[in-house]
């Protein structure tokens, strides 16, 4: 498998759309090497989201720091044909020399607000579009989903069980990372635990029960090795399984250290109540109840609403694929080149021109409203975009530990107006305005571009 | 970033759920090292799917061939604590020694049909669950989506533009791979083109137009470098853009080699018709029209139905995330251990016990019905599961080039009954029966397991 050799996709300059390389060649040929500003933002909140939690910046900065074309990659491009000798020579010394401004990971963002701003020579800023979108999109989709799940769980533990249904290995790792960022407690993925230094937890699978001569024998064997584990009790019949755990407690006495049981099928609310009652009657109040099986924020909210005595939630598929909103319309758009603002007018894909800043206003310890403004505008609001990279080097502001980003995410959720924690879309969402100055720039540029709308050719 | 060092997730034995490692330790401690059979299958077709196209086997076999714990990984596990010294020693020489049976990539499969069958010592077969599910799930979700898009495009070209919205770098590569498998013509992802040796294509982006003093100047500059390219015409106004391409043709005469224009916004059907008319009136019948912008199989079908003269489709987000069915309920379940069939009874997650084969029957050059049977049953039908790995080594049957798998996928789609090509769910879907013999095994095992359902403890 070629993909398993050499530079990995997330490190490789070839992880890009072919058109980026073609445009680069053309920019170099025209000596269009002036500074461009690209902004990464989304236009529309998915239908049942009241916010997006921005994530993925750490990977983006790591990618930009290491970006280069290896000798093998240059040879391969040469063999493909279609590129000029001059361009291929220019790739030899290519690296990213630009500045990056961004909102810190875990920040809540809204429609049309720049999340990442790349200020770099045009060819460099163009090449990186594909990877930047790929990672900011994925990780923001996942962090947003995880923030909703954590919010619905109201302080109960949430664990990422999503590796098997995440879209590939990279997504599986990023589910673990972004879930933790958004407040989940742990992941089941061992590789992710090692990569991000986050807690890893694991229970047992049905196959373990099935492989043994009886459920009781299986449970007894497992706690021989892992006394303080979580036991799975629904392989044959949940309440019969619970009774076997109680029998084990009676048999083992002081040596019984089982922390929890896991319910993985059936009416979880009802089974949790009956299991709790059985354990409490047996004097096993310390045994916790953990639930899994197709959970998402809606089901967790419903279970807690009906008073299900569930202490922790294992969330898999829906945390991993964000099934009700698997995509957000993130774009990466040129807003300025050679110190002139730029825009496009494509039908229903309009673009606010020029380099921007987002100012956030607060009231009574909550976020109140945002204003999207020209970058250099003065405002009493708190600017969201901070410089995280200078001339291709990561700044201290761009080195945020996952723990610190998690704390920032927690604070952001605490600042969110209570009504926007709803799992359904709130009619009057969070207010985001455009500043007068930005609106004027926009109108002026529209007038200047009018010539492009006529069938006559422009002067050039 | 730790994830960028050492073994990559898709090669690492640590890309697994923690519970797999815990169960392994327990199996080793109990000397439960006999042969297990696990089957990977899905229970329910997503609501608007009439088939699933199986994919991902090549990656799975590559993973199994190379599976081991590196010294660093062993050290890390040791540092974590929680595992026995004996188990950690056993990991030193761990590799996968089992057999694998599977349906070839590109095969169309249905509910409850095993797609991959792993026959290996229990601890080995257990460890690999997470990666096998991760890849077969992802690639089958994507191949199925791509097969629908290709089918809807009715012979018109389909190109994967999905890298930026795919869920991570691995998914982006797999979108390219599975789309090609399912009949798409090319990808925009350069890394994927190199990794899988598939055609890579690219046009240009709005930023290129915006960065230039005028749209005309941009188009002219781009064909200077890439004369036979595809030009993007919707940055300011689509038909004004088309007229600029026509003016370019007039200016360049014989040197005008532009192959196509790309429409990326607005009413694509109407704009394609008007663009076609403008080009034809200008004598530019050879200029093709390519469309992109939020396309999926439903929109492509509608565009072709209204007679839109579109020659090729660039499909991005929906091909990449399969938004209408981002997940399939694939599971990997123990069906046999130490030569005895196994099952579970968890509510609405029942399992057909024992090692199985799927036999397919044909009539008048179409697939007619499938029978899920015990593995050793005789049948006139064509068995779908083939041996692809023996004692950890890939067999010739397991080495299928992507081109050959693509041809197999094409034949499979040609064998699918015409009504099942519908984009909506067909009421009476493809018939899949369970053989009498398998039904009897199932009933017998249910009787044997009755003891587990009673509150009394079993003998052991």
UniProtKB/TrEMBL annotation, chains A, B:
Keywords per UniProt: Glycosyltransferase, Ligase, Phosphoprotein, Pyridine nucleotide biosynthesis, Transferase
The Nicotinate/nicotinamide phosphoribosyltransferase domain, residue ranges: 157-333
InterPro entries: Aldolase_TIM, N/Namide_PRibTrfase, NAPRTase_C, NAPRTase_N, Nic_PRibTrfase-Fam, Nic_PRibTrfase_pncB, Nicotinate_pribotase-like_C
Domain Nicotinate phosphoribosyltransferase N-terminal: 14-136
Organism listed in the record: Nitrosococcus oceani C-27
Gene Ontology CC annotation, any one: cytosol
Post-translational modification as stated in the protein's UniProt record: Transiently phosphorylated on a His residue during the reaction cycle. Phosphorylation strongly increases the affinity for substrates and increases the rate of nicotinate D-ribonucleotide production. Dephosphorylation regenerates the low-affinity form of the enzyme, leading to product release.
Domain of life of the source: Bacteria
Annotated pathway: Cofactor biosynthesis; NAD(+) biosynthesis; nicotinate D-ribonucleotide from nicotinate: step 1/1
EC number(s) from the headed UniProt entry: 6.3.4.21
Name the UniProt record assigns to this protein: Nicotinate phosphoribosyltransferase
Record's catalysed reaction(s): 5-phospho-alpha-D-ribose 1-diphosphate + nicotinate + ATP + H2O = nicotinate beta-D-ribonucleotide + ADP + phosphate + diphosphate
Any single biological process term in GO: NAD+ biosynthetic process via the salvage pathway
Summary of the function given for this chain in its UniProt record: Catalyzes the first step in the biosynthesis of NAD from nicotinic acid, the ATP-dependent synthesis of beta-nicotinate D-ribonucleotide from nicotinate and 5-phospho-D-ribose 1-phosphate.
